[in-house]
Amino acid sequence: MSVFMPTSIDEAVSLLAEHQGARLLSGGTDTMVEVNFNRFKPDTIIGLRRVDSLRSYEITEKFVTIGAGLPYAEMETGPLAELFPALAAAARTVGSPQIRAAGTLGGNLGTCSPAGDGLPVLAALEATINLRSASGVRSVPFSEFMVGVKRNSRRLDEIIESVTIERARGFQDYAKVGVRNAMVISVASVCFAHDIERGSVKIALGAVGPTIIRAREAESWLCSRVDASNTLPADDGVASEFANRVSAEARPIDDHRSTAAYRRHAVGVLARRLYLRSTR
Ligand SMILES: Cc1cc2nc3c(=O)[nH]c(=O)nc-3n(C[C@H](O)[C@H](O)[C@H](O)COP(=O)(O)OP(=O)(O)OC[C@H]3O[C@@H](n4cnc5c(N)ncnc54)[C@H](O)[C@@H]3O)c2cc1C
């Protein structure tokens, strides 16, 4: 096996151009499981941990760009947690402290599991995924990036460099259920984001469809309940109707982790919970 450890993004993309099909490695928390279970035997690995630019973030007046190699631990607290509470909440639910010290959004996007905890947040916050190759940077909206179960639109010569998210004011949160309380892959998850300046509400559902689902019908129904001051009513009836509408937009399946019926029910419960939290 050949292992390359580039120290700059330019070096990494030229190595990838030379060795197309090489496995990119960020935290290794997905890849090493595949290796340990003999599901994958790499010929060539390009390790990205020494590329400092991938492990940083930049905050401007309107946007925040987060390097694909920034570990979850750095999203749980500090400036990113203040700007994107939903991202912090999702980061806190990932694995254990050891996994959060190594695992990255780039790896979550690379694997592209519908149960990946970072992905509903990127969907609800309408993040742009920045992909770098030897020919430059291509920016793709999250909605066009994830195209199926563990499938994305990254080309083989591209490295996920970063994600860009527009700053917004208002309530954001993320919640998931699994088969136990911690160290667990999502059985159903919801990200809820209310932008009080634009009066918009975005809801994204994880683990209840082949890709992350934006519950667009429930979003527009809820937006029509936003009052002139852009606040949402603390109303139990609205919360229940909203939960039913979110459940109706899920497309869950039965599998080893759960049944479709439980998943449909669970996203409704989570959506209701987050909605009521947003009105406090
Ligand atoms: C014990 C345990 C618990 C876990 N719990 C959770 C959990 O609660 N929630 C959750 O969502 N996940 C969980 N995971 C899965 C994993 O931690 C996450 O998916 C994490 O985000 C993967 O990031 P990574 O950097 O470790 O990815 P890696 O393993 O390095 O890479 C994963 C995939 O992405 C590709 N990739 C990595 N970086 C890039 C890049 N910059 N550009 C292009 N492709 C790239 C790799 O080639 C590979 O295909 C868990 C894993 C373990 C082992």
* Helical proportion, percent range: 25-40%
User: What gyration radius follows from the Cα positions, in whole Å?
Assistant: 19 Å
**What are the distinct ligands in this entry?**
flavin-adenine dinucleotide
Total strands? 14
Beta content: 15-25%
Feature tags:
24% strand, globular, single chain, four-stranded antiparallel β-sheet, alpha+beta, five-stranded antiparallel β-sheet, 280 residues, 14 strands, binds flavin-adenine dinucleotide, 12 helices
Written account of the structure:
With 280 residues, this protein is α+β, with helices and mostly antiparallel strands. It contains twelve helices and 14 strands. A five-stranded antiparallel sheet has the order 4-5-10-6-7. The longest helix is centred in the last third of the chain and has 19 residues, at 260-278. Bound molecules: flavin-adenine dinucleotide (FAD).
